[in-house]
């Protein structure tokens, strides 16, 4: 049976807030994983740009004694070359973790706001946001 307009609006706001929180949790998890996995690339490219005379030309001791323009260019190129495989590794880690934690199942449909009697969580999903049991056959994507 359909809800009243004010109740539907209130439930829409609640479901929208829950979906936004789940989205932010996914975004935070993705940011942490990508930052940790891409840290070697970030460091190598940073030192390459910092010590190159045409870019920043830092007066740090290691820039004067260890890194010249050729080695700085090599660091920059190396950083960008190792970025591609590390992006693939980071995405694989995120997808594996999101699937294991069943984070994509926590998004709620807006039909809960329109009709009465809908379940907040579908039975047997086993996601962290649900109190039901674990269903190993469930997929967040088809």
UniProtKB/TrEMBL annotation:
One of its GO terms (molecular function) is PDZ domain binding. It comes from the Eukaryota. The chain crosses the membrane at residues 21-49, 74-94. GO terms for cellular component: plasma membrane. Keywords: Membrane, Transmembrane, Transmembrane helix. It is found in: Membrane. The keyword Membrane applies. It is a multi-pass membrane protein. The keyword Zinc does not apply. Belongs to the TMEM88 family. This is TMM88 protein. The gene is Tmem88.
């Amino acid at each position: 049976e359909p809800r009243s307009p004010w109740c539907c609006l209130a439930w829409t706001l609640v479901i929208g807030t829950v979906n936004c929180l789940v989205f932010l949790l996914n975004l935070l998890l993705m940011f942490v994983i990508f930052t940790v996995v891409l840290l070697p690339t970030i460091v190598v490219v940073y030192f390459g740009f910092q010590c190159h005379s045409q870019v920043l030309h830092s007066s740090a001791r290691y820039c004067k004694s260890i890194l010249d323009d050729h080695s700085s260019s090599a660091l920059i190129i190396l950083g960008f070359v190792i970025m591609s495989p590390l992006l693939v590794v980071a995405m694989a880690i995120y997808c594996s973790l999101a699937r294991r934690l069943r984070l994509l199942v926590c998004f709620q449909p807006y039909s809960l706001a329109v009709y009465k009697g809908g379940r907040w969580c579908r039975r047997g999903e086993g996601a962290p946001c649900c109190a039901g049991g674990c269903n190993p056959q469930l997929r967040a994507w088809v």
